[in-house]
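input
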Amino acid sequence: MSVPLTLLGLLEREPSHGYDLKRDYDTYFGRSKPLPFGQVYATLARLSRDGLVAPGEVEPGDGPDRKRYAITPVGRDEFETWLQEPIEPEPHLQTLLFSKVVPGADARSLRAAVPRYATRRTPAAHA
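output
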């Protein structure tokens, strides 16, 4: 499963702080292996460097100052492209499919993807 693409999917729902992204990731995908905070912030830094997310203004809070990250149009395109890619069978396929569908897929993306996958599977099923 791709942590950067999964974080982009979580950000597609709404702009979020790194702490919130970690919490959501762990809730959906990290039951057996939680995502370390360091990996969240290192991944956000790379996504920001690559123009896929944009950090907002620093927000003061009860603890350290926080930035709310938002997906950019380039990041949204990257995420949408990933959603459209067919998935090869693998040991953790269910987790990968879950990471594509749960965090940020909207109904439009799902409607577009389902017929395509069904079409690809139908000929193989009859062979």
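quick obs: DSSP finds six helices and three strands in the chain.
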